[in-house]
Amino acid sequence: MEKQSLSKARLKSFSLATVFTTTLVLSSVSSAEAFTIFTNRTAWQAAVDAIAGSVTTTDTFSNNIASAQTITLDSGIVSANSFPPAVAFEDNSVSGGLFLNSTDGDASSASTTITWTFPSPVFAFGADFLNTNPNQLNLTGNFDGTGNQTLLVNNSIGGANGFLGIIGNANFRSIVFGTNTNDLDIFQIDSASLASVASVPVAVPEPGMITGLVFLGSGLVVRRLAKRR
Prior knowledge:
The protein has helices at about 10-15, 40-50, 155, and strands at about 20, 35-40, 55-60, 70, 80, 95, 100-105, 115-130, 135-140, 150, 160-180, 185-195, 210. By secondary structure, the chain is mainly beta. The protein has one domain (about 20-210): Sandwich (Jelly Rolls). Strands 1, 2, 3, 4, 5, 6, 7, 8, 9, 10, 11, 12 and 13 form a 13-stranded mixed sheet that branches. The chain starts with 7 loop residues before the first helix and ends in a 17-residue tail after the last strand.
């Protein structure tokens, strides 16, 4: 029998210390238009496994893949760097168990965006990020079926390194990495996980859960990085 929603008991079982619920609040957005962010892989996996029929695929980047404008990862994810410029150095590659890439808002040193297209629709995504910078690397996706939502990776996980997981209220087929500045922003991903299910439950966060707002645009303190020579 398809599960239509996460039970309140399961929602309450998630630790507030490890689960960060983000509702992007706009004037036309209702409480049902939300997605849940996890900064702990174990908690994210438990929430995914609680959904009947869910299947998780994890790409550990075990096999090296040479740098190219578009590559296909072992999990079937197609990673495509926007053009121009042509990829350089080790951008959009897999080496030593890591996915390597960088973004640049003015495209002078790296691609402005990196699009990951999944082999089939998913309702959840999670990855272990390394060397992210505050107010720079961002992640965009249509996580609730109402249109694209964007969040800052470093600001969401609370540091340069950490896990960022999303459980959406609708299936999504792709995500886009970008940058909030015109500076070169180099980052790595240690492993990435996808979860799929035939029918996606609609889980509205409980009022008592922590709600965070991630705003992009004016008011952010931007740490500028030197351009790569």
